[in-house]
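Action item from last week, closing it out:
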Amino acid sequence: MGSFQSKPEFVTVLANKHVKLGETVTLRCEANTKYCIATWEKNGRRLYCVQDKHVITQTGKTCSLKIVNAQEADQGTYTLNLTNSAGSVTRSVEVLVELNAWTTVQWKEDPMINKLKTFKIGNADVRKLHFLLFGPTGGGKSSLINTIKSIFEGRQFINYLTAPVTSDIETLYFEKYSVEKDGLFPFAFSEIMAIQKSEGVLENDVISALKGHMKEGYMVSLKWFS
């Protein structure tokens, strides 16, 4: 009479693995019989050994899969199939590889602010750098000033009105805004009336603003376009 084979069963359970990049992963479990064929799958497809990457062993009732130098591509669902003439059984586990951060962000707000505050202009005759914002309505000029002042002054600044693209021009007067936190920073921002399809600021006003010849509060002159 032939020998009787019992249906394969798992005596120990495969456990999910969470490893770091470069570590070795070992999946191991024990069956109730050594008379079975063990095959491994990854993400539902037969796993074939790659040299220096996978090591599959079956010693007696113990089955194991070793994954060397775990990488992101090794993540997935691994399934062990045990089969003999009496039947088959499967178990699956998840392998998660923790990747190293590609960069480390160090937020150093105070050193950045101090560096900008103590910035020295090369020309002794120039006391402050002035940035003129000029462009179409809804381009984000006022929002930029609000954001910069909020960051550097450590408080929400919304004094400058912002206009959507379809609205009328908001900035009617030439205004200058300095940045201040425990003293003035060596730069300031100015905004001049926006450009629209039907009207806009005169070229001479733009030139005067660039040269620093325009006083704060000056109401810009309109130029109508045909």
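Closing note: The CA atoms of residues 202 and 223 lie 6 Å apart.
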